[in-house]
Write a structure and sequence with these properties.
alpha/beta, 11 helices, YtfQ_transport, binds beta-D-galactofuranose, 312 residues, Peripla_BP_I, six-stranded mixed sheet
C-alpha cells in the first residue's frame, strides 16, 4: 500500500497541472493572432491550462482581466501590455497574492522591477535599425522622403521601433522622415493614414518609402499606394516588421521590399521559465530575448513556406 501511495504522490508532483491567465492585447494584427495560437499550442504541449482574455487593445480591459485572474488564484499571469505605463497598481495586487507575472512581447516602465519575473521580447530598437540600415544601403545618396506608420501610441515596441529607424538614418541627410503618425498596428488604420499622407504629398509623388512598425499597416499602405495609381515596392519602397504570410506574398508580387521577422512564440520561453522556477526556484533573466532578422524579396518564398509551422 505504501508503495502505491508514494507512487501516486510522486506522480502528482511531476504532473502538476498549472493554470496560467493570459491578458492578451487583442487581435489587431496577423502577428497577434499567431501569437495567441502559439500560446495555446505551447500550453497544450506542457499540459498547462491557459485562460486567455482579449483586451481589445484597451488597457482597462487588460487590467480587469489581471484582477480576475488574481481572484481565480491562477498559478501565474502573462501580460502583453498594450501600453508601457499604468501597470503598478494591479501588479502590486498580483505581488501581494504571490502570483508571478511574465510580460510577453512588450515591456513596461516600472520603478520596482520585482513586479514582474521576466519579459519575453525582441530588441525592438534593433528591429527598427535593421529597416533603417537596409534603406540607407538601398537608396545610397539619392534623396528619399520617408513616411512612417507608427504602432499604438505609448506601446514600448512603437517607441523603440521609431527610435531604431531614426538612429539608423540619422547620419544621412538625403533621407528624411517627412510625416509620421500612428496606424495603431491595424491594416485599416494603416491604409487610412497612408491615404492622408499620399493626398498631402502630391498624390504620393513626393514619397520615396513607407516605414511601417508592423506588416499589417504596411499591407494597408500598399493598398492605398495602388489605389493612388502608384507601384508599391517600386514608386514607394516599403519596410516593416513581423513576418506575416501576406507581407511575403506582397514581396513575391514585387510590392514590398524589406521585412524583419518577429517570432510569434513569446509564450514558450515564459512557460519554460515558469516551470523551472516552480521546479527548483531558479529565477529567469529579467529579459528573455527573441531574435530579429531582415528578409528581402529573394527569401520571400522560403519565408512564406516556413510560416505554416509558425502558427499562421
Ligand atoms: C511586437 C508586437 C506588435 C506587432 C504587431 O512585439 O507587440 O503588436 O508588431 C502587434 O503586429 O500589434
Amino acid at each position: 500500500l505504501t508503495t502505491l501511495i508514494s507512487a501516486t504522490f510522486s506522480g502528482a508532483a511531476l504532473a502538476e497541472n498549472l493554470t496560467v491567465g493570459f491578458s492578451q492585447v487583442g487581435s489587431e494584427s496577423g502577428w497577434r493572432a499567431a501569437e495567441t495560437t502559439v500560446a495555446k499550442s505551447e500550453a497544450a504541449k506542457r499540459g498547462i491550462t491557459l485562460k486567455i482574455a482579449d483586451g481589445q487593445q484597451k488597457q482597462e480591459n487588460q487590467i480587469k482581466a489581471v484582477r480576475s485572474f488574481i481572484a481565480q488564484g491562477v498559478d501565474a499571469i502573462f501580460i502583453a501590455p498594450v501600453v508601457q505605463t499604468g501597470w503598478e497598481p494591479v501588479l502590486e495586487e498580483a505581488k501581494d497574492a504571490k502570483i508571478p507575472v511574465f510580460l510577453l512581447d512588450r515591456a513596461i516602465t516600472v520603478k520596482d522591477k520585482s513586479l514582474y519575473m521576466a519579459v519575453v521580447t525582441a530588441d525592438n530598437v534593433y528591429e527598427g535599425k535593421l529597416i533603417g540600415d537596409w534603406l540607407v544601403k538601398d537608396i545610397g545618396n539619392k534623396p528619399c522622403n520617408v513616411v512612417e506608420l507608427q504602432g499604438t501610441v505609448g506601446a514600448s515596441v512603437a517607441i523603440d521601433r521609431k527610435k531604431g529607424f531614426a538612429d539608423a538614418i540619422a547620419g544621412h541627410s538625403n533621407i528624411k522622415i517627412i510625416r509620421s503618425q500612428s496606424g495603431d498596428f491595424t491594416r485599416s488604420k494603416g491604409k487610412e493614414v497612408m491615404e492622408s499622407f499620399i493626398k498631402a504629398e502630391n498624390n504620393g509623388k513626393n514619397i520615396c518609402m513607407v516605414y511601417a512598425h508592423n506588416d499589417d499597416m504596411a499591407i494597408g499602405a500598399i493598398q492605398a499606394i495602388k489605389e493612388a495609381g502608384l507601384k508599391p515596392g517600386k514608386d514607394i519602397l516599403t519596410g516593416s516588421i513581423d513576418g506575416v504570410p501576406d507581407i511575403y506574398r506582397a514581396m513575391l508580387a514585387g510590392e514590398a521590399n524589406a521585412n524583419v521577422e518577429l517570432t510569434p512564440n513569446m509564450a514558450g520561453p515564459a512557460f519554460d521559465a515558469l516551470e523551472k522556477f516552480r521546479k527548483d526556484g531558479t529565477m529567469p533573466p529579467k529579459i528573455i530575448k527573441t531574435e530579429s532578422r531582415l528578409y528581402l524579396q529573394p527569401e520571400a518564398q522560403s519565408q512564406l513556406d516556413k510560416k505554416k509551422g509558425m502558427g499562421y
